[in-house]
From TrEMBL:
This is NAD(P)H nitroreductase. InterPro entries: Nitroreductase, Nitroreductase-like. It comes from the Bacteria. Keywords: Oxidoreductase. Coiled coil: none annotated. SUPFAM superfamilies: FMN-dependent nitroreductase-like (SSF55469). Belongs to the nitroreductase family. It holds the Pfam family Nitroreductase. The keyword Oxidoreductase applies. Residues 14-187 form the Nitroreductase domain. It comes from Lysinibacillus piscis. Signal peptide: none annotated.
Amino acid sequence: MSATQTVVSQVMQARKSVRKYKEGITIPQEQLQTLLQQAITAPSSSNMQPWRFIVITDQEVKKELRPIANNQEQVETSSAIIAILGDMKMYQRAQEIYDANAEQGLMTREVADAMIKNSHALYGNLPEEVIKNIVHFDAGLVSMQIMLLAKEMGYDTVPMGGFDKAKFAEKFNLPKNEVPILLIAIGEAATPAYGSSRLPLEHIVRYI
């Protein structure tokens, strides 16, 4: 690592999308739990934390998931699939979230009560499409943290948006308020990932 490169920068540069995994590698549940516990420090709109997760390690279930995920090989060969879901009714947990903030001394009881009231008033009256955009955005934030943390732990990942979300919801009996957003395969790479170029900054950045 160069003197100017931080640990975070090193992990970011090292993380690549991997689609070929060593089969039969088990990631301990405790490690997956630690990974998710750290990942959910991601920011979210009004701290509503709309992400929900299904962690799939059972080989038979992964095999059944594969055709739902456009027959992508890594669904079956990776150690686990982390399904990222978005809770369209996330504001219904505002009481739980802001009560904890008050109890931990992160805000006063008065501020917490106001935030609970405002969250229900705001999110409870937003159009479904707006809520969906919010939960997708927040899911992206937590997903990136999952992938970077996984790399730091020595595992590789690949995000997959290409799957039949209606069939996934049916297969896993999702409640109506939960929408599937992304699948993340995690495991040990069987072959090195391909590198990929990026557009020059001068083509994508404007300074004003």
